[in-house]
């Protein structure tokens, strides 16, 4: 699963990406310094791994990861090709969710493409371009579908029906993620369209160092916008986070303590992005490794087993499951079993976030 980082030029996208992934992407003070999308992998900080490790000794602890794509800055007119817009919009279509970086810091040395910082205007600039890009795609698709429609062609008729509903919303300036489609075949057709405004959005308010996000007027403006559009906001100082990412563990802890922070703000960004994508984690634990695995919310036990190895899903028999709270209370897996809290679940079991599992299979 991939999340794409978008925003206007010079809002801190690449600095944020570098801090999250330590990938070293260019972060220069001029538009379009990122021409090709940079891709990085972000470990998801999860304290539950360390909790398990306190009771189960292992050789390695492996967190789950999130894939991030740093997409070059969009500008007004991107939907018509301005600023290499068509190329960048195609990159956004390929991700599963959007992390929208919004400039909330004032700095005369960092130019703003519109001359002054106005976070709501900036958000609306980007989202208008995304809406217009979707509208153009939908109109072109509708035209082709109507021309190719033949009597009895149910699939094309369904495509036209879904496209027309999308067109109505987009023409009203509303994202298609607000569309309600009750039937599975409608939902499948909708997903096949790969519309940008169907993707969930997390707003990242990039602030100055030492700014209080709870009192910051720009951040409050972003929160107000997000509240009206069912969005979530995470305030971050990308420059500070970039400095933290370059430190070793001891120096990072010292810097965090000096700033009164328990963890880097980017840990909150990664977790929020994970939720945005509708993901959750389960764990496996043994002498070789303790590991977090990523699954969609609502995944069944065999599907979870398949993330470890396809043979596990194909030959799934059952899964032994317990909760981390039981491990903390009783101190070992043996005591969990003795207390009758190690559950045996079958093929219909729906995985819960935080399950610790031992899969039994036969191929």
If you had to describe this structure to a student in words, what would you say it looks like?
- With 363 residues, the chain is an alpha/beta fold.
- The protein has 14 helices and 12 strands.
- The strands form 3 sheets. It has a 6-stranded mixed beta sheet with strand order 2-4-1-5-6-7, sandwiched between helices. A 3-stranded mixed beta sheet has the order 3-9-8, with helices on both faces.
- A hairpin with a 3-residue loop joins strand 8 and strand 9.
- Helix 1 runs parallel beside helix 8, helix 4 runs antiparallel to helix 5 and helix 5 packs across helix 6.
- It is flat.
Strand line-up in the sheet with most strands: 2-4-1-5-6-7
Helix/sheet category = alpha/beta
Low-confidence stretches: 24-35
Q: What profile does the largest beta sheet have?
A: 6 strands, mixed
Q: Number of helical segments?
A: 14
Structural topology:
Blueprint: E1 2-6, H1 13-21, E2 38-43, H2 47-55, E3 60-62, E4 65-70, H3 85-93, E5 97-103, H4 119-148, H5 154-171, H6 184-192, E6 201-206, H7 217-228, E7 232-236, H8 238-245, H9 249-258, H10 265-276, E8 279-285, E9 289-296, H11 301-308, H12 310-314, E10 316-322, H13 324-330, H14 333-338, E11 343-345, E12 356-361
Parallel strand pairs: 1-4, 1-5, 3-9, 5-6, 6-7
Antiparallel strand pairs: 2-4, 8-9, 10-11, 10-12
Helix pairs in contact: 1-8, 4-5, 5-6
């Amino acid at each position: 699963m991939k999340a794409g980082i978008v925003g206007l030029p010079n809002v801190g996208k690449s600095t944020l990406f570098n801090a999250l992934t330590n990938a070293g992407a260019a972060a220069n003070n001029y538009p379009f310094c990122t021409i090709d999308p940079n891709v990085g992998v972000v470990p998801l900080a999860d304290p539950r791994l360390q909790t398990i490790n306190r009771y189960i000794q292992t050789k390695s602890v492996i967190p789950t990861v999130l894939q991030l794509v740093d997409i070059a800055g969009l500008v007004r007119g991107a939907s018509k090709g301005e600023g290499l817009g068509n190329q960048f919009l195609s990159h956004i279509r390929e991700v599963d969710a959007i992390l929208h970086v919004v400039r909330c810091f004032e700095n005369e040395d960092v130019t703003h493409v519109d001359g002054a910082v106005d976070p709501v205007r900036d958000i609306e600039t980007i989202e208008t371009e995304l809406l217009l890009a979707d509208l153009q795609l939908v109109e072109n698709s509708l035209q082709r579908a109507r021309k190719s429609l033949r009597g009895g062609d149910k699939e094309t008729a369904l495509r036209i029906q879904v496209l027309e509903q999308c067109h109505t919303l987009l023409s009203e300036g509303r994202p298609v993620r607000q569309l309600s489609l009750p039937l599975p075949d409608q939902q499948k057709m909708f997903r096949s369209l790969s519309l940008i405004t169907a993707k969930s959005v997390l707003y990242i308010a990039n602030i100055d160092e030492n700014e209080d996000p709870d009192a910051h007027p720009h951040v409050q403006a972003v929160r107000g916008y997000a509240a009206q559009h069912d969005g979530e906001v995470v305030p971050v100082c990308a420059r500070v986070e970039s400095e933290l990412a370059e430190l070793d563990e001891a120096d990072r802890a010292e810097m965090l303590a000096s700033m009164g922070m328990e963890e880097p703000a980017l840990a909150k960004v990664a977790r929020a992005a994970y939720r945005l994508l509708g993901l959750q984690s389960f764990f496996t634990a043994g002498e070789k490794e303790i590991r977090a695995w990523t699954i969609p919310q609502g995944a069944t036990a065999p599907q979870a087993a398949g993330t470890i190895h396809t043979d596990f899903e194909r030959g799934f028999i059952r899964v032994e499951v317990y909760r981390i709270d039981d491990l903390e209370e009783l101190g070992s897996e043996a005591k969990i079993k003795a207390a009758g809290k190690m559950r045996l679940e079958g093929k219909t079991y729906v995985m819960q976030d935080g399950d610790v599992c031992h899969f039994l299979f036969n191929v």
